[in-house]
Amino acid sequence: xxxxxLTGMSGAGKSLxxxxxxxxxxxxxxxxPPSMIPDLIKAFAQAHQQSxxxxxxxxxxxxxxxxxxxxxxxxxxxxxxxxxxxxxxIIFLDAADQVxxxxxxxxxxxxxxxxxxxxxxxxxxxxxxxxxxxxxxSDIIETSNLGPSELRDMIYAMLSVSSHxxx
Length: 167
What we know:
Blueprint: E1 2-8, H1 14-23, E2 27-30, H2 37-50, E3 58-63, H3 74-83, E4 87-94, H4 97-107, H5 119-134, E5 139-142, H6 148-166
Parallel strand pairs: 1-3, 1-4, 2-3, 4-5
Helix pairs in contact: 1-6, 4-5
């Protein structure tokens, strides 16, 4: 079974990337507490074994800044998944601060860490909180200059190559 963990900066394109992953046949779970990852993997693997489908062996888990207080649980969860014989790949989506600010202004959504902070302060705090996770990723996708179709093509190419190499 192939497990993909998708993480990165708020506004860098994680939700869009998750949609593309679903289109590629991944089962996607967003905002799952890291402590629940091992149980999800076991349940997903069991459901896959019980079904007769040849596809559907790919799971994507989106972890964002709302889960960073629990990041200390992510590393043991990833180690456990690998011990069970599953492939784990971690992709981090990033963008320049000014690009993130512009995207938030366009979307008129608030940053998850904005409570009482400016948008620039919230982004700086998020970078600080995500730094440990960024150190353990397999791939970083810089989305500052990517449109949706370019991001889709990059993810497709990245995962098509890796899936081909693993078989």
